[in-house]
Write a structure and sequence with these properties.
Number of helices: 4
Distance between the termini: 36 Å
Helix content: over 70%
Structural class: mainly alpha
Number of domains: 1
Shape: elongated
Order of helices and strands: HHHH
């Protein structure tokens, strides 16, 4: 089962295609500066999901979404830190 199938949320689905596109382009480049820039783009795309007005703490769908987004954001932050060291 893919992440898209697990997170049955229209708001998540709207952002998912774009975040996957940015992630794919981030993974394809070897240039640290470009990686850092693309990681920042990813964070910019994810941030509105972390501020979702429809977030319901009691909803398993919302919790799964929030966990996925937080993991992606933390990964992007690490890529940015690594790009500054390189």
């Amino acid at each position: 089962m893919s992440e898209e199938e697990k997170v049955n949320c229209g708001i998540f689905q709207q952002k998912e295609r774009k975040t996957r596109e940015i992630t794919r382009s981030l993974n394809e480049t070897r240039d640290p500066k470009v990686k850092g820039n693309r990681a920042q783009l990813l964070i910019n795309e994810l941030t509105p999901l972390l501020k979702c007005l429809e977030y319901d703490q009691g909803s398993s769908v919302c919790e799964i979404c929030r966990n996925i987004i937080n993991l992606r954001k933390k990964t992007a932050e690490l890529v940015i830190k690594a790009s500054k060291i390189a």
